[in-house]
Amino acid sequence: MDFDLMITSFPKLLSATVITLKLLSVSLFFGLFIGLLFAILRLNKNPIINKFAYGYSYVFRGTPLLVQIFIIYFGLGQIEYFRSTFLWVVFKEPYWCAIIAFALNTGAYTSEILRSAFQTIKPGFIEAGKSLGISNKIIFYKIQIPIAIKQSLPAYGNEIILMMKGTSLASTVTLLDLTGVAKYIISTTFKPIEVFIVAGSIYLFMTFIIHNLIKYLEKKFSY
Amino acid sequence: MELLYFGDNGWGDELFIATLMTVAVSISAMLIGFLFALIFTPLKLSKYKILNLIGNFYTTVIRGVPELLVIYLFFFGGSGAIMYVASIFGYFEYIEINAFITGSFAIGIISGAYSTEVFRGAIQSIDKGQFEAGKVLGFNKYIHFFKVIMPQMLRLALPNLSNVWQITLKDTSLISVTGLVEIMRQSYIAAGSTRDPLLFYSFAAVLYLLLTFISMKFLNRLEKNYSRGF
To answer: pLDDT at position B1, please?
Structure first.
C-alpha cells in the first residue's frame, strides 16, 4: 500500500469530481425535460406519436451509452454539411457532446419512469378534478404532476445514481472527469489499487449523498 | 454500404466475429456473476452480522462505483495481482492475462453484484411456510433447497435476471478500452481505417439492438415457461 500516493492523488481526484458533478447536474437537468416531453408523447393517443416516443426510448435503452457518445462525438463531425451549421460550435466540444449523449440517454430512462408514474395515477383523482370543473391544464399541473413526482422518486433516485456512474464514460472522449484522472494516475504510477480505493470512495460518497437526498425527498412528498 | 460486405473489402465478417465475441463475453460474465451470487447471496441472508457486512460491502461498492473504474482496476491491476501471487510460489516471470479473461472477470463481478440482489430479493419473497414445511417434513437441507426453494426462486428471479442480462450485455462495450476485439473495438478499428465513424458506430448500435431484441424474445419465452400454473 502506497499511502503517500493516496494522499497526493486525493486533491487531484477531488478537483476532477467537480467536472463529474457538472456533467451529472447539467445532463440530469436537460434529461428531465426530455423525459417529461417523451412521457407525455408516450401517453398520446395518436399511434404515430406514441410509436415514435416508444422507439426513442427503446433505441436509447437498448444500446450502450458508449455507442451513443461515440456516434455523437465521432460520427456527427463526419457530415460535411453539419460542420458548416451553427450547431457545430456545440458539437465540436467533447464536453457538450458528452452532455448531449447523457441527456438523451437519461431522458429515455426518465420517460419510462414518468410514464409508468402517470399510468399508475388513479383515474378517480382526475375525475374528481373534472367534476369540480377544473380545467385540464390545471389538473395536469396541480394534480397529475405532483402525484407522478412522488410515485417516480425511488426509481428516479436509482436513475440519478446510474447516470452518475455513466458520466465516467466522458473519459473516453478526452474529458478529464473523476474516472479520467484516475485512469491517468493509474497509467503513470501503475498503482491501480490505491487509486481505485480513493476514486471509488469519492464515487461511493456521492452515491451515499444522492441516496439520502432521495430518501429525504420521499419523506417530504409522502402524504 | 459496401464497407459492410463480407470478404476482403468489407468489414461484415469482422463485425460478425466481433458480435460473437460480445455474446461470448456476456455469457461468461453472466456465469461468473452467478458464481459470485452463489457465494454472496447466502452471506447477505446469513444470521451472522459479520457475514452480512461482507455481503453488503460487495454489493454496495460494486453498484456504487462506475463500471469503467472497475475495468481499469482489473486491466491495470490484474496481471500485477497474479504475478504477486505467483511470486509467493517462486515464479518471477512476467505473466500476461488474456483480455477475454480480464474482461469477463471484471464484468462478471459487476453482474454478480446485481444478480446477488436479485436472488436475495427472490428468496426473501418466498412464503415462509415453504421453509417451515421442509423442516417439518424432515427434508435434508440441500434437497430442500434444490427441490423446493430453487424452482420457486427462479420463477421470481427470472424477470429481474433478464434485466441483469441486458445490463451485462451493454457493459461489455466498456471492455473495448482493454483492447478485446468485440463490437465496439471492431467498430473503432473500422472507423479509424475507413474514416467513416458514423456508419460503423451506427451499425454497432444496430447490432446491440438486435442482440437485446433477440435475447428479450428468448427470455420472455423462458419466463412464460417458468410461470406455468401461476
So the answer is: 65
Q: Domain limits of chain B? A: 2-226
Q: What is the ipTM of this complex?
A: 0.87
Query: Are the CB atoms for B169 and B26 separated by under 8 Å?
Result: yes
- Residues A195 and A5 sit within 8 Å (Cβ to Cβ): yes
Q: Do A64 and B174 touch (CB under 8 A)?
A: yes
Q: At residue B77, does pLDDT exceed 80?
A: yes
Does domain B2-226 fall into CATH 1.10.3720.10?
yes
Give the model's pLDDT for residue A223. Answer: 66
pTM of the model: 0.89
CATH number at residue A214: 1.10.3720.10
Tally A–B CB contacts below 8 A. 111
Flag whether pLDDT at A115 surpasses 70: yes
For residue A140, the model assigns a pLDDT of: 85
> B37 vs chain A: nearest CA distance in angstroms?
21
